[in-house]
Specification:
GO molecular function: oxidoreductase activity
Number of strands: 7
EC number: 1.5.1.-
Number of domains: 1
Largest sheet: 7 strands, mixed
Order of helices and strands: EHEHHEEHEHEEHHH
Shape: globular
CATH architecture: 3-Layer(aba) Sandwich
Protein name: FMN reductase
Radius of gyration: 19 Å
Keywords: Flavoprotein, FMN, Oxidoreductase
CATH topology: Rossmann fold
Length: about 200
């Protein structure tokens, strides 16, 4: 079973950003046997800010960061503010080291009030994840307010399915990472006994 982590940077509840994230996750799971864990960044906003000041993540934020590092694939969706991703979205990904996302398949999505901001996916999100050495799927998905007016138009649904399928194929092609098992090679009893006598 593969592990997908879905990052939603929506600020309201409910939000169109989370709706798009959920649709993308469902589309990826149709082509891949995978669990999908959603991380709502608004729930970690204060901890992200504190991390920059103190240098230490809270336990909840640390768990979210570890989930991203250990994921087989990522789905990331941000609202578009001032023609780019949100500050909260950028701050979260600023917490990763240079190689944390290297080679990881990523599906990028965004939401906004107008279709005019759809290019933010290509001039903001795609370069960010290319810099982090992730492998970004060819199809990005932008949903404007009018896309939700009738429950999402057919064009949006087609893009969601295509992007989800691309992510599923990329994740499926990656070798399954070896999960660490602390009990796989226990220290032999004789060795433990010898250490006590020394």
């Amino acid at each position: 079973m593969r592990e997908l982590v879905v990052i939603s940077a929506g600020l309201s509840n409910p939000s169109s950003t989370r709706m798009l994230a959920d649709r993308l996750a469902a589309a990826a799971q149709r082509g891949l046997e995978a669990n999908a864990r959603v991380v709502e960044l608004r729930e970690h906003a204060k901890d992200i800010a504190n991390h920059f000041v103190t240098g230490f993540p809270s336990p909840a934020l640390d768990e979210a960061l570890d989930a991203v590092r250990g994921a087989d694939g990522l789905i990331v969706v941000s609202p578009i503010f001032q023609a780019s991703y949100s500050g909260l979205f950028k701050s979260f990904f600023d917490l990763f080291e240079a190689d944390d996302l290297s080679g990881k398949p990523v599906l990028i999505g965004a939401t906004g009030g107008s279709a005019r901001h759809s290019l933010a996916l290509e001039h903001a999100l795609r370069p960010l994840f290319s810099y982090l050495r992730a492998v970004v799927v060819p199809t990005s998905v932008y949903a404007a307010s009018e896309d939700w007016a009738t429950g999402g138009d057919a064009t949006l649904a087609d893009r969601v399915e295509r992007a989800g399928g691309e992510l599923a194929a990329l994740v499926d092609d990656r070798p399954v990472p070896a999960r660490e098992d602390a009990f796989e090679e226990p220290v032999p009893f004789e060795q433990l006994l010898a250490q006590q006598h020394n």
